[in-house]
């Protein structure tokens, strides 16, 4: 059973996928979206779900440091609802506080240029979100 991890922003969705045993997360791709124009990348997400036989989706849930839910978190909740309605799969909101910052720090330490980091940051954050969830299940 594969699990998909998503890092959802207003312009991109980073995608990660678990191995079949649910032990490790690997980065897949970054999907361009346009939240303002109601373009959410659901067609591509659906293709990945079908090809990889995904049974569950973990979505990074950006809470504020004081544990409240702000505008970005509310948008993420709506995105998760769209996923549930579109694919009829369990969708788990996973606390992702600091995951993007941790991903950026890791890429900086790897001496990746700012331009290259921008292209992969969401995918790496999705890996960190999904791996955190997978580790919690053991």
Automatic annotation (TrEMBL):
Residue ranges annotated for the YqgF/RNase H-like domain, each copy included: 1-103
UniProt keyword Hydrolase, yes or no: yes
EC assignment: 3.1.-.-
Alphabetical keyword list: Cytoplasm, Hydrolase, Nuclease, Ribosome biogenesis
Location in the cell: Cytoplasm
InterPro entries: RNaseH-like_sf (IPR012337), YqgF (IPR005227), YqgF/RNaseH-like_dom (IPR006641), YqgF/RNaseH-like_dom_sf (IPR037027)
GO MF entry, a single one: hydrolase activity
Enzyme class of the recorded protein, top EC level: hydrolase
Pfam families, per the entry: RuvX
Keyword Cytoplasm: yes
CDD domains: YqgF (cd16964)
Cross-referenced SMART domains: YqgFc (SM00732)
Family the entry assigns: Belongs to the YqgF HJR family.
Function description: Could be a nuclease involved in processing of the 5'-end of pre-16S rRNA.
Name of the protein described by the UniProt record: Putative pre-16S rRNA nuclease
Organism listed in the record: Bacillus chungangensis
């Amino acid at each position: 059973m594969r699990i998909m991890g998503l890092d959802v922003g207003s312009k991109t969705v980073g995608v990660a996928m678990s191995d079949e045993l649910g032990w490790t997360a690997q980065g897949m791709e970054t999907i361009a979206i346009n939240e303002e124009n109601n373009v959410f990348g659901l067609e591509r997400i659906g293709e990945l779900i079908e090809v990889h036989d995904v049974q569950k989706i973990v979505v990074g849930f950006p809470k504020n440091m004081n544990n409240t839910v702000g505008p970005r978190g509310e948008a993420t909740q709506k995105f998760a609802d769209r996923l549930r309605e579109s694919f009829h799969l369990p969708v788990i909101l996973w606390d992702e506080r600091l995951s993007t910052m941790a991903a950026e720090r890791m890429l900086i330490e790897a001496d990746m240029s700012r331009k290259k980091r921008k292209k992969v940051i969401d995918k790496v954050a999705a890996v960190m979100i999904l791996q955190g969830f997978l580790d919690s299940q053991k």
